[in-house]
Amino acid sequence: QVQLVESGGGLVQAGGSLRLSCAASGRTFSSYGMGWFRQGPGKEREFVAGISWSGGRTSYATSVKGRFTISRDNPKNTMYLQMNNLKPEDTAVYFCAASTRYYGDFVPPRDAYEYWGQGTQVTVSS
Q1: What's the rounded mean pLDDT across residues 47-57?
Q2: Structure letter (DSSP) for residue 56
Q3: What does each C-alpha distance from 52 to 16, 56, 80, 112 come to in angstroms?
Q4: Which among 17, 45, 63, 81 is most buried, taking Cβ atoms within 10 Å?
Q5: Bridging pattern class, strands 68-73 and 33-39
Q6: How much is the pLDDT for 42?
C-alpha cells in the first residue's frame, strides 16, 4: 500500500512558477516509479511527467517539456514538479501517482499507476 498527499498548488499569473510536492508513505519509496497527471475543467485526466524509482529516468508530455521538471528525493519520501512559465491552459487539478509494478529503473507506462493522491488545484490566470 502507498499513501500519497500533494501540496503546493495555488493561483499564479501566466509566466509564473509553482512547485508541487507529493509526500509518500507506506511501501519503501525508492522501490517504485511515480508520475504526475492533471485534469483540467471538462477534460480527461492526462499524463504530465513520470520518473523512475532512482530518479535517473524521466518522461514528459509534449505540452510541458522544457517548462516542467519532475524530480524526487528518496530519503525524504517526496516527489516534486517544478512548473515554470505557466500558461492558462495548465490550469487543472494535479495528481501524483505511484506504480509498484516492476519496470526496472524505467518510467512506468502511463496506464500502470495504481495509487493516487487526492489532487491539488493549480490555477493560472491570464
Answers
A1: 97
A2: S
A3: 27, 6, 13, 13
A4: 81
A5: unpaired
A6: 94
27 vs 114: which has the higher pLDDT:
114
Q: How far apart are CA 80 and CA 13, in angstroms?
A: 20
Given CA atoms 6, 59, 27, 102 in this order, what sign does their dihedral have?
positive
Cell of 94: 494535479
Question: 47 — phi, psi (to 5°)?
Answer: -70, 140
CA distance 11 to 55: 28
For residue 61, give the DSSP letter. -
Residue 72 is classified by DSSP as: E
**Residue the block writes with cell 490550469:** 91
Return d(Cα 90, Cα 123) in angstroms, integer. Answer: 7
Residue with cell 520518473: 51
The span from the CA of 87 to the CA of 14, in Å, is 5
How far apart CA 122 and CA 84 sit, in angstroms, is 13
DSSP 85-117: S--GGG-EEEEEEEE-S--SSSPPPTT---EE-
Residue 119, amino acid:
G
